[in-house]
Every structure is written in structure tokens, then in C-alpha cells.
Amino acid sequence: MKRPLIHIFGGTSDARQICVMMDTAGIDYGLSVATPTGAQQAVGIHGEIVIGRMEAEGMVEYLQKRGAGMVIDASHPYAERLSQNIVNACQKLSVPLIRYLRPSDIDVVEHPLIHKVATVEQACEVAVHLGSRILLTTGSKQLADYVTRLTGKTVLARVLPTADVLAMCESCGLSVDQIFALKGPFSADFNRSFYQFCQAEVVITKESGEQGGFKEKVEPCLSLGLPCIVICRPSQQFSGEGIKQANGLEEMAQLLVNF
């Protein structure tokens, strides 16, 4: 008898690693990613890749249609709305949910140059007092918010090299001297050279964990004497009937053994 399909939400490197686990175990699954870029990162997996953002109702319809027997939320740690939509859809259908949590390094990083904040607004409030050339390594999603709040500063953006992201940068008024289209993660040595090359005076980043190269972003700041503002992850403790949490890939693998 064919086992019920597992559906995974997430275009992260963690999500791809979970897909590889599924392939190795011979488990049927599908993967949802928001953009074609996410699909490119998942090339080579055996499961069906579904491209496009879904709201809660769309998720309900899709999961019903596919007869999903379990859902794994392996979305980005900062994708709060997506994670809540996944919870709502699973609870409506009474489908078991595993929330994958990427291990965090935030508690082991303490230094006077590191400023931990909770929001983009707070990051900008701190940054304006620390320097004029502010490098963002936070992605493009909230780029317009940074540009608006950092008026009078030189905003430098390291973003993915895709046409839609570059168009967004241009629409925010960034010039070619302010846009660095590169795909990470990068080594600490690369970041150190990059920070020097673009003459950054402040770096703003996210608590992206090992998969996102968090330590490799922070360590060069300390060695160069650059202030580093870290936007901490939102507190996401989803609980309820049928919801389990997997802290890291090892716990995820253990949960899959029992499926």
C-alpha cells in the first residue's frame, strides 16, 4: 500500500536536505517553493516541486487534493506569515504538522560591536548612529523599508542575482554602485574582503544559522572593528494537536524514521 504523501513547504537549504532524506528513505513527497529561484535550488530532488505562494485557503485546497498525510514546515525562520498559514491549514484538515527549526547560534555570540534587535525598525534606529555606509545582508524582501528609514545614508544591498530582485533594487532608488548581486552563503574570508571592498561602516544581518552562514558574516565584522546589527528571529513556538517540532536535521531524521 502506498504511503500517504508528505508535503514540505520551504525553499531553504534545510528543506532541500530534508528532501534528500526523503529520497534516501523512499518516501513520497512534494515540495512547495515561493519562486522559480527556490525551484532552481531544489533541482535534483525526486519529489514534485510546486512553485507559487499559497495563502491558508489555497493550502487547504491543495493538501486536500493531493491527499497529504503529513506536512513539514521547513520555511525560512523569518517567514512568520507563511508558518502561521501552514498551521491554520493543517489544523483545519487535521493533518499532522512537523515544524522544522533551524539551530540558532545567537546565544554564543556576544561582543560590544554586536547589536541584537527584534525588528527592521530597531535595526535602522541603531544603524543611523553607527555609520554612513550601511551594508544589508538581509535579502531583498524589506529593502524598501530600509531605504525609507535610512534616508541620508548610503545603503549597500547584497542580494540574489535575479532579474526581479535587481528590478526591486532599482525601484528603491539604488544605483549600480549600491547593488551587489551575489548568491551565498560565503566564507568568513570572502566576507572580510567583501566588507573592505564595499567600504561598509555598518553591517546589518539576520540570525540565519549555520546554513545561512551566520558566523561567517559576524566574525569578519569583529576582526575589522565593524558594528554588526543582528535582527533576531521571531519567537515561533507553535503548539497544538498534531504539531511536533524538530530542532535540527538529526531530530528531523528521527521523526521520519517513525513515519
Automatic annotation (TrEMBL):
Keywords: Cobalamin biosynthesis, Oxidoreductase. GO terms for molecular function: oxidoreductase activity. PROSITE patterns: COBK_CBIJ (PS51014). Pathway: Cofactor biosynthesis; adenosylcobalamin biosynthesis. The keyword RNA-binding does not apply. It comes from the Bacteria. Its EC number is 1.3.1.106. Pfam families: CbiJ. Coiled coil: none annotated. This is Cobalt-precorrin-6A reductase. It comes from Xenorhabdus lircayensis. The lineage of its organism: Bacteria, Pseudomonadati, Pseudomonadota, Gammaproteobacteria, Enterobacterales.
